[in-house]
Design brief:
Layout lengths: L5 H14 L6 E5 L11 E7 L17 E7 L2 E7 L10 H4 L1 H9 L3 E10 L9 E9 L27 H9 L3 E7 L8 H10 L3 E3 L3 H9 L3 E11 L11 H25 L1
Helix pairs in contact: 1-3
The structure holds hypoxanthine (HPA).
Hypoxanthine binds next to strand 5, strand 8 and strand 9.
C-alpha cells in the first residue's frame, strides 16, 4: 500500500528519470478536458502513468493519464495529462504526489490548468483567467501531518503563491486575473456558497489545483495557474442548472486557446 511519502516518491522518481532524455525545467498539469496542450509539444516522449510505480490513477472523466515530456518553444517541459482529485476519495498526499515528484525532479516552474465556474460576472464561459490568489475552502491542507524536512519546511510562505512576474506577463497578453476559491466537490456549489465565496473575494470556483499550488510553493517552484471558465457558477444565472458534460464541452473549445497561451508564456520563461 502506497502512503505517498518521500520513499515512495523516490521509487516513482527513479522510474520516471530512466525514461526522461533530458531534465525538464517546466511542468504543466492539464485539467479536465484540457489535454490539447500536447499539440504544441515537439520531440514527444510519452509514458502511461499506469506504468509508474506508486503513481495515483485518475477516475475523473477527461483525464487521460499520460505524461508527455518534450519541448515547447525550445524549453524542456513535462506535461502531466490529468490529475487526481480529493473528491475521488484520494488523500491530499496522493493528490499532491505528482507535484512532489516534479519538485524532486528539479522543475523550476509549475503551470497548472483547471476548469472553473465564474463567480465574477465580467468573466465569460470559454475565457481563460490567470489566477492571482486563492481561498482554500477544501477544509484541509496537503501539508497536514508530520513534516518531512527533505521536502519542505513546516510553515511555507504563501505571500506570493502565484508568481508575480509570470502574472505580469499573462496580464501583458491581455488576460484577466482572478481569485480562485477551492471547494471539495464533487457536487457543484450551491448558489449560497457561490454568493459567500464572492463576498469573501473569489472570482472563480473550482475543485482542484490549490493542494498542488501549496505543495509546489513549499518546494520552491514558481507557480502559475490558468483557469478556463467552463460555466457561470451556480446561481449566477438563476434559471440554469450545471452539468459535468457542459464543463467538458466548454473545455474542448478552450483547450486549443489555452495551449497557445501556454506556448506564448513559455517563450518568455
Ligand atoms: N464549480 C466548481 N468547479 C467547477 C465548476 C463550478 O462551477 N465548473 C467547472 N469546474
Amino acid at each position: 500500500m502506497t502512503s505517498f511519502n518521500y520513499e515512495d516518491a523516490q521509487v516513482s522518481l527513479e522510474f520516471l528519470k530512466k525514461f526522461l532524455r533530458v531534465q525538464p525545467e517546466i511542468a504543466i498539469v492539464s485539467g479536465s478536458g484540457l489535454g490539447d496542450i500536447a499539440e504544441v509539444i515537439s520531440d514527444k516522449n510519452i509514458i502511461d502513468v499506469n506504468d509508474i510505480p506508486n503513481w495515483p490513477i485518475s477516475t475523473a472523466p477527461g483525464h487521460s493519464g499520460k505524461i508527455i515530456a518534450g519541448q515547447i518553444e525550445g524549453k524542456n517541459i513535462i506535461l502531466l495529462q490529468g490529475r487526481v482529485h480529493y473528491y475521488e476519495g484520494y488523500s491530499m498526499k496522493a493528490v499532491t504526489f505528482p507535484t512532489r515528484i516534479m519538485g524532486m525532479l528539479g522543475v523550476k516552474v509549475f503551470i497548472a490548468t483547471n476548469a472553473a465556474g465564474a463567480i465574477n460576472t465580467s468573466f465569460l464561459p470559454g475565457e481563460i483567467i490567470a489566477v492571482r490568489d486563492h481561498i482554500n475552502l477544501m477544509g484541509t491542507n496537503p501539508l497536514i501531518g508530520p513534516n518531512d524536512s527533505r521536502w519542505n519546511e513546516r510553515f511555507p510562505d504563501m505571500s506570493h503563491a502565484y508568481n508575480p512576474e509570470i502574472l505580469a506577463t499573462l496580464s501583458s497578453f491581455g488576460l484577466k486575473t482572478g481569485v480562485y476559491a477551492a471547494f471539495m466537490g464533487p457536487s457543484f456549489e450551491t448558489p449560497a456558497e457561490v454568493k459567500m465565496a464572492g463576498i469573501l473575494g473569489a472570482d472563480l470556483a473550482g475543485m482542484s489545483t490549490v493542494p498542488e499550488v501549496i505543495v509546489a510553493n513549499s518546494m520552491g517552484m514558481k507557480v502559475c495557474v490558468l483557469s478556463c471558465v467552463a460555466n457561470m457558477a451556480a446561481g449566477i444565472e438563476p434559471d440554469k442548472t450545471l452539468t459535468g458534460q457542459e464543463v467538458l464541452d466548454t473545455m474542448k473549445i478552450s483547450s486549443h486557446k489555452l495551449a497557445i497561451i501556454i506556448a506564448k508564456l513559455i517563450k518568455t520563461l
